[in-house]
Structures
1.
Amino acid sequence: MKHFIPFIVAGDPCEEVTIDLVIALEQAGATILELGVPYSDPLADGPIIQRAASRALKNGMTLTRALELIGQMRKKGVKIPIIVFTYYNPVLQLGEERFFALAQQNGASGVLIPDLPFEESEHMRILGDTYGIPYISLVAPTSHERIAMIASQAQSFLYCVSSLGVTGIRDSLPAELHEFLKQVKLYSRVPVVVGFGISTAEQVDRLQHVCDGIVIGSAIVQKIEQLQHQLNDVHTRSNALIAFSQYVVSLIEPLKRVGKNESQTTTETTKTVSTGQTD
Amino acid sequence: MLTLPNERGRFGMFGGKFVPETLMRPLADIERQLHEALADPSFHAEYMHHLYEYSGRPTALTFAKNLTERLGGAKMYFKREDLNHTGAHKINNAIGQALLAKRMGKRKIIAETGAGQHGVAAATVAARFGMECKVFMGEEDVKRQALNVFRMKLLGAQVIPVTSGNRTLKDATNEAIRYWVEHCDDHFYMIGSVVGPHPYPMMVREFQRIIGEEAREQMLKVEGKLPNTIIACVGGGSNAIGMFHPFLEDDVECIGVEAAGKGVHTTEHAATITKGTKGVIHGSLTYVLQDEHGQITEPYSISAGLDYPGVGPEHAYLAHIGRVRYESVTDEEAIAAVQMTAETEGIIPAIESAHALAKAFQIAPLRPKHETILVCLSGRGDKDVQTVMNYLEGDER
């Protein structure tokens, strides 16, 4: 099976529920988790994830607490690799070394920083190597001649931004996407995953043949937003979690269908991704 | 100092390009084309042509005779950027960037604005050069600056109210960048200050240097020597960099004045260098107003043009190496300076510029009469009349 990489925001709708949601996602078939750290100025995010970040910030979520939350997930038995998705400024304030030390202590498996491009990330990549926390690189449709350079340093997996723009739900993905993914795969030694805008089972179905994994963020975060009140209320939580799981399963149903014939690649990629895991 | 930024866009440790990967190539394109343009005499000639015959440059250097006599110290001169077309220095940069956009074959302009001054400048040059213009403006500012919103619309621009975050300049800038990420193939992002990712801080400086270059010549002509002290207000810091830069290697004291709002001891100020810490905002490593967890905090100043939680990375550098001193002035002091300049010299300055004036009025009496102080009067106060009125009436009540 190809990778299914859901993205959710730590602390949305609250810390406790974030752990439940991650457990539900793992059971639903997530192979890697991207855990978003809320930020006041999320430049790469559209309205859905911006709103989730605001909710989480109101709940007092911080980078440190998000890292500790990963530790709690590990204690509750979450086994899949967890990638910390954070903007650079909170890392800078915490201190880069301290960030990696905490990430390692709490069982994080990688870090992805959307506003720290290749040229600015050398120090973080070196520290990542030291602490065994891979630094995930991104390529975009505008990267062109930059793809070879970025791919040469890619660790764990290479994240392809599907289209121009910020995160969000898109009705259609660009026609050039397949060509772009094929090109990236030529240069990449690690699995190539695609994200930004992917929000339906149909899109998942069409894309899975040209990549090694699919990231789904806004669609899942929107579902959490819709269910937030039921999720926050202990009496309705378990039903809301079931509804959430059903939605996620329906989104990735095409992946499972194909997965039965392609199990060989999975073992390889999971191995690569898990390098940074400490549990 | 003058050769900065380096090839990585850094002024010392400050600056850089902290942006999503999608923007790295568009930024590299702008950088390449900017270097070509700046090395091309015909580009410079065209830029100067528009500054002279459209914006009305050179702007005057006014000796503030009455204020000088009243304060009884150093002679004060005002560099009159308020006399530019559209009423502020912002047009210098807007013309420069519009010409670069044209050179790059881009006919669609995006701009962010707080009070609306840069938005109006962008809308103006877009009209003049036959370009489409979208201005992102926080919903709060749209309400507070209804007149400037209408000015932009009158000039044919589309004003897009921004409802994210606190709905002010910071959020308008975020939204402009988000829109640019999506439309970078055919849109040119015209940033209004010396902020943002490389090469913007350098580009905007190059298009604002004219302020200091002219003032230098004018001071030499009138006084036969360089000024002893130069003072300019700093929000993002474009008028200040434009004014300071041609004097940085001279023995001239430079003072940048930030907005202290209700006081730097309160949480309601915009004194980024005075009170901020190192951080990343809008693509650049600089001083930032933020909490201990790295979340950007909301600044405050009565002056919308200074109400920004970051500052140009070159200012951060100049502060760090001690070449420029950064101080701050409160709302109250700035409003008093507006009144004093209006009553004494017959000039109503923008509240932004009044921050620089207030500092000059504090310093002038302490300096000997043979010394000169040059103040950048960056914009006119027509836009602020309502704000000043509300403030003074509120005060009396």
2.
Amino acid sequence: MAKGSKSTAAIDTTGLSKTFGSKQALSNVSFSVPYGSIFGFLGPNGAGKTTTIRCLMDFIRPSAGSVSLLGLDSRRDSTELKRRIGYLSSDSQLNPNWTGQEHIDFFEKIKGASANRAELVKRLGLDLSTKVRSLSTGNKQKLAIVLCFTGDPQLLIMDEPTRGLDPLLQNELYDILTEFAGSKKTVFFSSHNLGEVERICDAVLLVKDGRVVEEKSMASIRDMKVHMVSATTSQAFDVRRLQALPNVKVIAKTKTTIDLKIKGDFNLALRNLLMMKLTDLTVNHAGLEEVFLEQYKD
Amino acid sequence: MLPIIKRELWDRKFSLLAYSVVGIALIWLYVALFPSIKASSVQLEKLFQAYPKAVFQALGVQELSFNTLQKFLGVELFSFMWPILAIVFAISRAGTTLAGEIERGTMGLYLSLPVSRLRIFIAKYTSGLISMIVFVVFTVFAILPLAAAYGESISLATIMQLSALSFLFILAVYSATMFFSALFSERSKAYMIMGGILVVSYAANVVALLKSNLNWLHWGSIFYYFNPQDVLSNNGFKLSHAGVLVGTAVIFTLAGSIIFVNRDVSN
């Protein structure tokens, strides 16, 4: 637990609601994030992830409900909290006319230096001498990540932190976040990538249409996964055995090709497919929108 | 707060420099023109008398005489070109510093730091205020050396009064624009509304000068309280007018800070 905090949770929201005019962006969102965890905040586009995060950061004020971070009130103690929180926005909030170094200098003057800044810059392969307007999306994201760690925060709140990063850098970031959480600090990040959440999170909160759908353990997240399988065979398909499987849905079929949607464990379905003489097989993760549609049809 | 003030001043140094250079160039132009205008002042006065009186009333010209540099600058520069330059500078600076940052998405950079919103507002306001002071100092005090270079003289007391009035005018415009900049998330809205208000304000002052039964309209015009001709010609700096300009600035600044502290910043 962080120094000075009374709560047992690093983040605690109760009945959080937000309306923009007549649009209900968040409705009664309540959740807790334990200290020392990596907590995923998963939802399709427009689910309310960014609005929730902006309420946590006190950028926008909830219409109802309360937010407690590190045992402090998000609004009353906003200034003190921001000393202890590292924040990464979903859209670049960097000044296009400053270099990376100027951003870091500015942040460090206000928030204090970070003990591992040089190491972080090296690990992410960041060039600090270039003006932000000349940086690629990925490099801007790397700079935003480095800034997020300024002042050695106790809690990281990150809105889609892997956006714009190539797979190698995504892996590096996963390692960085895992190490951070390993030192009893907390990471809360939003994503619409089921794979990355599954890979590094301890628990996941699912949101849709501004509401919390449910909080899931990592085992149940794996069951949520949906794979899209396309197979081609040199002989006619016998789909009866595949259709008999409860988690398999035949999307399209010709004499020698078949497209399947497999929810959860795909081993049995693949075993059935492999019994036929396949000439081609592709397996893809379904997008989060598809997963949510499958999981929460109502 | 200090790092934000320093950063703002550094980031906006070129616009301050550009506006100041244009202001000084205008003074130089008018001061350089003055000797030939002075030589023809009698003919010009006769020419002006042939014009309908309403034309000069509409332009706010109080005394149709160019026999001194003070009168010439008061009519030609400080009643027309200087206020336009000052208004554009104040509006663009205030519109960019809050609404512009929100529009560009960079306000989050400041809001994510351990600095209260009130302090962010004060820091940004203060950096703009410093720029306004520098602008006024350059574009008013430059009269002294330039006048001397062309063999003319204006007393320091007159320049001090003119700079005080000019500063209060630009301060009121800047503070009112800061209010709209705190209110909106697009700088164009702040520009348009403030520009519209100033046009209406100018029109109200002109109508008040032309129609005696609508004389009361000038009370609502900022241009009534900014009277550089009177200051330059008669050292007529009025404390009551200064008080209105200060009051306008204070009210809009307080209202702007309250709005900025309590509003949602979605970008």
